[in-house]
Amino acid sequence: QVQLVESGGGLVQPGGSLRLSCAASGNSFSIYAMGWYRQAPGKQRELVATITSGGGTRYADSVKGRFSISRDNAKNTVYLQMNSLKPEDTAVYYCNAERVVLTTIMDYWGQGTQITVSS
Q: 71-93 burial, b for 16+ CB within 10 Å, e for fewer?
């Protein structure tokens, strides 16, 4: 079982920066693939960025070059550095931990943190 707690959300002006953190409890954090997803009002949840246990990263086209995902296994924490924020980045951001055991996907979500980009 993994519990995830996000922090770092808030209100920021267009062009600004924020860093989200997701602290994980439980064992074996390092073997989980971690990800950030977001959901804007009236829209489906979408992938923002993921990082594998080996450090490989993947980004949504809409955030490439602006956002950066990283992890600190010693602190059981994954980060999302967001730069050059745009109003369309406004959403609730969710942290995800995923691990595949044989044919079973073990999937955990945080409670979400609101990011509002507005002047």
A: beeeebbbbbebeebeeebbbbb
Residue-by-residue DSSP string for 11-78:
EE-TT--EEEEEEEESS-GGGSEEEEEEE-TTS--EEEEEE-TT--EEE-TTTTTTEEEEEETTTTEE
pLDDT in tens, 51-74: 999 999 999 999 999 999 999 999
In 3D space, the residue among 44, 41, 49, 46 whose CA is nearest the CA of residue 19 turns out to be 49
- For the record, the structure tokens of 17 come out as 């920066």
φ, ψ of residue 7 in degrees (nearest 5): -155, 165
- Write out pLDDT tens, residues 84-106: 999 999 999 999 999 988 889 89
More confident residue, 18 or 27: 18
